[in-house]
Specification:
Number of strands: 21
CATH architecture of the largest domain: 2-Layer Sandwich
Helix content: 25-40%
Distance between the termini: 30 Å
Bound molecules: flavin-adenine dinucleotide
Shape: globular
Strand content: 25-35%
Oligomer: single chain
Radius of gyration: 21 Å
CATH class of the largest domain: Alpha Beta
Number of domains: 2
CATH topology of the largest domain: D-Amino Acid Oxidase, Chain A, domain 2
CATH superfamily of the largest domain: D-Amino Acid Oxidase, subunit A, domain 2
């Protein structure tokens, strides 16, 4: 089968590898090259604990306060409000208790396969060295904040998503001596894995695709049209190429292509920022998050990466670097002696669905096009599992996970 994949991010290349494994002849199109999007600079966390939807009754209560902090973990550019309002309404609806429970079960079903699917993918391409399992700490600046989050951690643990261990006082400092003594409370996730170089991982996946006979093409795709026997990709200069199947994995930029199929899918972007410090001057042995401020500090082979946050401002607004500056300054107080010399700033567009679940499945009305986008904060985590599901949809072998909760038809 000749299959075109649009997007050389972690989702597109995971899909390419899974399809090649089943014997497909694969071509990956990307208008900017390998790992040009969100997959390039993410925080590297294989966050298989993240089974709760972003929109929960508890979270919704905190939104007004968060929005009033101009550089807090969540910000909205008010000029963008009219455009994003329908998405926000769906986001609110997804936080109703029944919906949130449905979302949690659906996410937990995916997460149950994350470790095994990455084991398979990494060993297949010889990239096991890029994933380490050193656990993570989520550290709180006050007992109140720690207590407020405990129910959420208990719920995640009950869904089998992670082992959770509270850590307090001296033990926290024994585990991470570089952290400020002003932190007294933390949640320890002993089994969490992280990636030492997300960009390097995606590059290796791309090389593996080529070594297995797949083709990478530095080309934009302007539109997708079903034909009688397959699918036609339209190229911007007017050319066209025909394939038997197409997988659409253009991350936050997928809307332009779903529109070409006549579909209206509520994909938005949650923009995130970070800085990577090549010589941080302090050592963390595992990722540490400060949940109240919405950022992670991840030790990587490329330096210490500090960032996160959510900005709702669409795809076109210029970056607002003050957002990452606030996180980096806060990190300086968490890690006394932090050296920011030579830091590299980055902004990425998370592809976000209002119900937090990715879209994985055949396009309504164009069954030979498989959609795979909308992984939000979890695209690295869910990449390998999504690849398997995409291949399952195309080869009719999706029998591990009930695929219904992720189908694009859920938006009516
Ligand atoms: C600050 C930040 C931190 C994050 N941290 C984590 C984390 O710790 N763990 C985790 O699991 N996830 C994390 N994420 C989320 C994760 O990075 C994304 O969910 C994931 O990278 C999405 O992958 P993708 O392949 O769908 O999209 P992308 O990586 O964005 O790839 C899409 C590709 O499609 C190409 N493209 C777009 N339109 C076209 C077109 N018309 N024609 C051809 N090519 C096109 C683009 O050039 C791009 O290369 C983070 C994201 C951000 C922003």
């Amino acid at each position: 089968m000749r299959i075109a994949i649009i997007g050389a991010g972690v989702v597109g290349l995971s899909s390419a590898l899974a399809l090649i494994e089943r014997g497909a002849d694969v071509t990956v199109f990307d208008r900017e090259g390998v790992a040009a999007g969100a997959s390039r600079g993410n925080a590297g966390i294989f966050a298989d604990y993240a089974v709760l939807p972003e929109s929960t009754p508890d979270m919704l209560r905190q939104v007004p306060r968060m929005l009033l902090q101009p550089d807090g973990p969540l910000s909205l550019r008010w000029r963008y409000l009219p455009q994003i309002a329908p998405w926000l309404l769906r986001f609110l609806a997804a936080g109703r208790p029944g919906q949130a429970r449905h979302g949690t079960l659906a996410m937990a079903a995916l997460m149950a396969h994350v470790r095994g699917d990455w084991d398979h993918l990494l060993s297949q391409i010889g990239a096991e060295d890029l994933r380490v399992t050193r656990g993570a700490l989520l550290a709180y600046t006050s007992r109140r904040a720690f207590q407020a989050d405990r129910a959420g951690w208990q719920a995640r643990a009950e869904h089998g998503a992670c082992d959770v261990e509270p850590v307090m006082g001296e033990r926290l400092h024994e585990m991470e001596p570089s952290l400020t003594r002003d932190l007294h409370y933390a949640i320890h996730l002993p089994n969490l894995s992280h990636c030492l170089n997300p960009h390097g991982l995606v590059e290796r996946m791309a090389r593996a695709v080529q070594q297995r006979g797949g083709e990478l093409r530095l080309r934009e795709v302007a539109g997708v049209t079903p034909t009688e026997t397959g699918v036609r990709l339209r190229l911007p200069e007017g050319g066209a190429v025909d394939y038997d199947r197409v997988v659409l994995c253009a991350g936050a930029h997928s809307t332009a292509l779903t529109r070409s199929l006549g579909l209206k899918i509520p994909l938005e972007t949650e923009r995130g920022y970070n800085v990577t410090l090549p010589d941080p001057g302090v050592t963390l042995s595992r990722p540490v998050s400060i949940p109240e401020k919405g950022y992670y500090m991840t030790p990587m082979s490329v330096g210490l990466r500090i960032g996160g946050g959510v900005e709702l401002a669409g795809l076109k607004a210029p970056p607002r670097w003050s957002r990452v500056e606030v996180m980096a300054r806060h990190a300086e107080t968490m890690l006394p002696g932090l050296n920011r010399a030579g830091e590299a700033r980055w902004m990425g567009f998370r592809p976000a669905m209002p119900d937090t679940l990715p879209v994985i499945g055949p396009a309504p009305g164009a069954e030979r096009v498989v959609l795979a986008f909308g992984h939000g904060h979890l695209g690295l985590t869910l990449g390998a599992t999504t690849g398997q599901m995409v291949a399952g949809h195309i080869y009719g072998s999706n029998n591990r996970i009930d695929s219904i909760p992720y189908l694009p038809t859920r938006f009516g």
